[in-house]
Request: fold
Amino acid sequence: MNWVLWNDRLVKDEDIKLSKEDRGYQFGDGIYEVIRIYNGNMFTAQEHIDRFYESADKIKIVIPYTKDLFHKMIYDLIEANEVTSGQVYVQITRGATPRLHHFPITPVETVLTAYTKEYKRPVTEMVNGVAVKTIEDIRWLRCDIKSLNLLGSVLAKQEAYENGCFEALLHRGDLITEGSSTNMYAIKDGVLYTHPATNLILNGITRRVILTCCEEIGLPVVEQPISLATVLSNDEFFLSSTTTEILPVTTINGIKVNKGIRGEWTHKLQIALEAKIGQEVHA
Ligand SMILES: *Cc1c(COP(=O)(O)O)cnc(C)c1O
Reply:
């Protein structure tokens, strides 16, 4: 079944009507979230909902629903579509008004849309790892907002894809920030390094769960940017996001990390994460 959420209504995909002057469409003036569904349930739903409201607040969009009602609306959508393994995508824009950069003078209704997608875990990549390409991070300075403005990320991901890579490893000068849609981590001498949750990265929900897993498995964490110059001297490297979970990075700019195989700590973290999401250990 293919229901979509349009403001507070569940409608059929073909019944949704969006304006050519929607500010999301014209300016990218809105924010979004991607929430993973395992066994018909949302994983870390509350954390994603909290971040959705925080992102909205940071750009002064007021979501016209309580968090509890919003949670129920999303859940009803998942149920209506009978999704077992997949994701729900939700976005809200500042609404539709004649095209002027400043906010609407007379307030208009925000536009919320959400839809679901069936999706399988990338188990092959979880074992074999993925390749990344280092690319200068030219995004704006509010990467902490999950904004619809994704041009910096789109261009970086495209360059990575054109070079046969799964993801862009973004850096500002010598400092690695994150991926175009993932967070990045290095492990060296039994310590995990990752960029601190500042305005220069999106603080992933998966990142937060991973940091808890580190504590559980006794892996010390240093929230400090990884140096690009010495990136290949790390023992292990991996990336994370809601849809990818933990993927070992086995190649950077065509050069193998950890001889091109998944590292031990990375594997332990995958197992710890799987325990939390209630999935079978894959390999
Ligand atoms: C969404 C996103 C992530 C990953 O966040 P999760 O909450 O773990 O899915 C990382 N970086 C960027 C730029 C993102 O947009």
Q: What stands out?
A: The two ends are 33 Å apart (CA to CA). The CA atoms of residues 213 and 273 lie 7 Å apart. The chain has two domains: 3-118, 123-277.
